[in-house]
């Protein structure tokens, strides 16, 4: 069965989101390694917080990539994974905004999860994954 064009677009957007989240997670792991307790610059708590943030972002990236594989194969469970990944991403961005993050960056990061939620909750998206 051929992939619907709209599904190919959503899968591509989810892949891009997962890839970008992976890059940000690697950035947080890099920050953690720069400020390791061995350097004497900072406390182990700061390093643990950076590693935890990187780990959380890796989980988000994995959710998106699992959605990509499941959606590409048109599996029913992919609908739930995509919805979960999108909602968790939105909640994470809201938390970052409440912590003083940039509104412009937040809006850019929110575009793909909002598009995914719109598609997954639309009749077309529901029908695609109901097969």
Structural class: mainly alpha
**Main pleated sheet:** none
Give the number of helices.
5
What order do the SSEs take from the amino end to the carboxyl end, as H and E?
HHHHH
Rg, rounded, reads: 17 Å
Overall pLDDT metric: 89
User: What share of the residues does DSSP label as strand, in percent?
Assistant: under 5%
Low-confidence stretches: none
Total number of domains? 1
Query: So what's the overall shape?
Result: elongated
N- to C-terminal separation? Answer: 11 Å
Percent helix, as a range, is over 70%
Tell me the total number of β-strands: 0
Question: Can you walk me through this structure?
Answer:
- The protein is mostly helical.
- It has one domain (5-129).
- The protein contains five helices and no strands.
- The chain has helices at residues 5-34, 44-72, 77-98, 103-121, 123-129.
- It is elongated, with a radius of gyration of 17 Å.
- The mean pLDDT is 89.
Question: What are the key terms here?
Answer:
5 helices; 131 residues; mainly alpha
Report a brief summary of the structure.
The protein has 131 residues and is an all-alpha fold. 82% of the residues lie in helices and 0% in strands. 24% of the residues are buried.
Topology of this structure?
Elements: H1 5-34, H2 44-72, H3 77-98, H4 103-121, H5 123-129
Helix pairs in contact: 1-2, 1-4, 2-3, 3-4
């Amino acid at each position: 069965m051929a992939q619907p064009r709209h599904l190919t677009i959503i899968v591509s957007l989810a892949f891009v989101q997962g890839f970008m989240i992976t890059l940000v997670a690697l950035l947080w792991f890099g920050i953690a390694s720069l400020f390791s307790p061995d350097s004497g610059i900072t406390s182990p708590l700061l390093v643990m917080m950076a590693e935890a943030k990187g780990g959380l972002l890796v989980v988000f990236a994995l959710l998106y990539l699992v959605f990509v594989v499941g959606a590409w194969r048109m599996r029913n469970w992919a609908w739930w994974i995509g919805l979960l990944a999108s909602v968790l991403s939105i909640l994470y961005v809201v938390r970052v905004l409440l912590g003083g993050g940039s509104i412009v960056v937040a809006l850019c990061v929110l575009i793909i999860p909002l598009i995914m939620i719109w598609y997954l909750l639309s009749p077309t998206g529901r029908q695609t994954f109901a097969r």
